[in-house]
Amino acid sequence: MSTLAPSPPTTPSAPSRPSARPAARWTRVWSGRRRWPLVAIAGAAIAAALVLLPLAYLVVEALKSGPGEVQRLLLRHSVAVLLWNTVRLALACTVLCAVLGVAAAWCVERTKLPARRLWAVALVLPLGVPDFVVGFGWVSIDPALHGYLAAVMIMTLALYPLVYLPVASALANLDAGLEEAARSLGLGPWRAFWRVTLRQIRPAVLGGCLLVTLALLAEYGAFEIVQYQTFTVAIFTEYKLGFDAVAACVLSLVLVALSIAALGGELTLTGRGRAGRPAGPGARRVAPRVALGRLAAPVLAGLGALSGLALGVPIGSLVYWMARGSSTTLPSASILDAAAHTAAYSAGAAALATALAVPVSALALRHRNRVTVLIERLAYLPMALPGLVIALGLVSFSVRYAFSLYQSALELIVAYAILFLPLAVVGVRSAMGQSSARLEEVGRSLGARPSTVWRRVTLPLIAPGLGAAFALVFISAATELTATLLLHPTGVNTLATQFWAYTSELSYGAAAPYAALMVAISAVPAYLLSRRMSTLANAERAA
Amino acid sequence: MSRLSVSDVWKGYGGAPVLRGVDLEVQPGSLTAVLGLSGCGKTTLLRVIAGFERAERGTVSLGEQTLDDGRTYLAPEQRSIGYVPQEGALFPHLSVQDNVGFGLSRRERRGEQVAGLLEMVGIAPLAKRLPHELSGGEQQRVALARALARRPQALLLDEPFSSLDASLRSRVREEVHALLREQGVTTVLVTHDQEEALSLADAVAVLRDGRIIQQGAPTDLYERPADERLARFLGAVNVIDARFEHGAARTALGTLELRGEPAPAGGASAGAVMVRPEQLDVRVCEEGAAAGIEGLRGRVEQCRYYGHDALLHIRPERPAGDGRSADAPQPADAEQAQDAELLLARVHGEQALPVGTRVAVAAHGPVTTLR
Fold it and tell me: What is the ipTM of this complex?
């Protein structure tokens, strides 16, 4: 032990401590093994209860009205019209988004496109513009825009990045060796793309399409602006204008059923393709980029048109109305007020959702059993629950059982947290999955107690993931309109509600600054996130 | 320095038990290798000793202290046991020196101790680096320094060299061995590589199907394996029919001295002995000139040349074995699914013979009775 000489002789040794006081030893044994999971179990249980509460309450409310009433409400002619409107919109938009998203992703990731990095950002940025702001942008410059085609166009432009992003990252991470193997087996470039590349990115395409469909089912603002009736619009109208809570609840359940059908459809189509990881060891090869040649001009024109329509028109019209509006009235005090409220509610929701996501992910990863896996699945349930449904459920619950909560700040924060819990869980879980259980064990074997290991090993490792989860929930909550309209405290306005109030009065000039602020809030972190993702992807590629 | 003892430890994960009554004694300051194929429960055994898993039955103790006996259970942080997992598992967010200092108190971390440890494993210039900036061998050394920092009474190494490539492996192995010798810390090393176990350890314990089937010095194990399967696991084997008479084995390869044990009672009896390939003497024996040379005649059917030595596959003119194949899972020999009658002989590199050469094969003892 000669080279260890500098160490003081008082290095704490395990044997002396526990044998000193048997009672102390027992508490430490139990705290070491159980205390941490107990806290986690409580947190996860709260998360599960919160997720189930609105849905359960909708079912209770609908059942209370009796089967006859439910039947009468469902079999109305207007329900069939709504169903047709919703389904044909969802189909058209989803297909268009898939085509645009895949084509754009392929051009950016696999061709020698000029100014590639610029396009990569420009094509994602429309995600930072709330759908109802896109609708506002178009309708405010052309009030004649309304109906089915307007809805399809606006929602496609707003939502195609949901396909573009996952497909671009799938293409970037694809092993070129597979394509080369296909080519060496006698397939031409197009057949290789169809039979190999497309098969590989299929889960990404379908996943993106699912997100598009779910977003369409949940959207209210944009459709209200272009006067297109979908289920969500009808439910909102029934509740807010017709004061018919039962009809709203029953229709909400149909909406949930549609969302679940979309989820099921995605699961069926993806099937075994989900497990399509390349087998065997060996480094992935990065695919060479295709030279565009004579196609360069049309491709550039197409991408330019896409981002011009998706990003340029809404932003341009915001700038136009701001310039016009500044000459009239700019209620600067109320916009600061609204911004402060938005920031406070969104931060509260982001903190709550992230805090709930930690125990859910930790249990699902570190103490995997049937219950913890079920809780994790439940945490993803709000993906299929439109904000309107969650808001209605919470409203019905609070009106009956907790009136003091009705239209309180807390209720709004809880609604946001439930609504965006899946985003938080995705972020936290992937971060936690990267910090392995083995590191925590090594920490324990080096004498650190579980709480110390959590503080010194787990937390620093998942901190970026927690930050990303917080940012995602914050952005989403700050630009949420539908649930906010139902739940915001009386007399308090957020950016979204004030924007909506002005838009409804056709005061576009007054509404524009609110929209601009929301775009700024969501665009800046979205940009930073996409930068971080691309550096991660590059680092992975370099490794 | 403390004795580590594991007795009758059982452990399962719901299904069939992984450990079925493991007994293991590690002498103070010695290095014991636990050798077994993957899936035999090696890692589970280490995890029970480290305290990441609780034993279902049995006792684990270190020196005078009971770590786990069903009633008492000490959490990993309360055991004075260092643990080096496969591939090091360095904390990716901490620099080399912070990794090494992780288990030390705040005051100790600031002192000379960390620098001393880094010096000891020869990576002092890398103190500020992050783990991903290190090579595999350097990461392994950091992991070792980190585990030794708290001066544990015992150290557990889980396949510490398997992630290193072959050229690096033997060097790191030597360095680690020298270091552990110097520190004199009681060490358990888990491996599936019999060469590593035999060459590094003071004692080897063979784990199979959740039980230790034999524990002893490397030479003991190699020369007197508990059964034929273990004999083959530790290296290539020829199984030769024998008659036991007067404390010796009469075989087709000559009369061979038996290792230590008394001859089976009751005069002559039939059985088989284990002859390692290096115990065979091969001499070229041309047609006609055969008269003066003793031994079993045969022909070289294959010659695997390794440089320092060569492995000859010799087909005898009449069988010497019992019809059971003698293929061993040793990497060098594993690819040759060997036919029962073939004899394996290890010879010096310069003695590699062309295929078809007629040879005479004799054996030199002592040999071990197999049955």
Answer: 0.77
